[in-house]
Amino acid sequence: MMTTPLLGVDLGQIASAIGHEFTLFSLDELYKAFFTLFVTIDIIGAIPIILSLKSKGKTYHSAQVGIYSGIILIAFLLVGEPLLGSFGADISTFGVAGGIVLFVMAVEMIFGIEIFKSEDDSSGNTTFVPLVFPLFAGAASFTTLLTLRSAGIAMINLALSIVLNMVLVYLVLRYVSLLDRILGKNGVYILRKFFGVVLLAISVKFITKNLIEVIAMVQHGVAALGQS
User: Fold this and answer.
1) Residues 6 or more apart whose Cβ sits within 8 Å of residue 179
2) Model pTM?
3) Largest CA distance in the chain
4) CA-to-CA distance for 156 and 19, rounded, in angstroms?
């Protein structure tokens, strides 16, 4: 075994784990993860917000927004599940909670109401706040990643879906004025409603799947207590 004397880290085990992740690559899983994260980030729906920031004289760096958002999301993907376990929760119960949050977000998108309130940033540079956090790498994205993990999506496919979505974030930020001219207000409105309905269907699927697992765990626990 290759073990670093200072940290006691088994490098062979780490290399084996990384190699195993690459064997789990799946185009089907990548598509599901990419599309779910794309809908949750709602980059199309963010176009009016970005244009509003520009009209107020706010500045941002497109590449930095994409890079910082990607780093934060991948970091959370790696530590989110262990962090969740430290609070005594498991991935199935979080999947139910995450599904409910996505359900509420879908309601916001479909009916045009604001349930999750956001604070306005008074500074001139909006690269980090509000674009990186909370818009592209906020609670909704964190919830989606862990909910997708609870659905059995492999880490490698989630990581690649993050990278692909951040490329889209960069492109939309870079060419937001052109996209606004092409889509128009009606185009953005229609797409946001459509993605809202899609997200609603995805959230219901997450809630029902994980709720069944939670109920099964409760029944197993009750049965174990009855036998003891």
Assistant:
1) 47, 172
2) 0.77
3) 68
4) 10
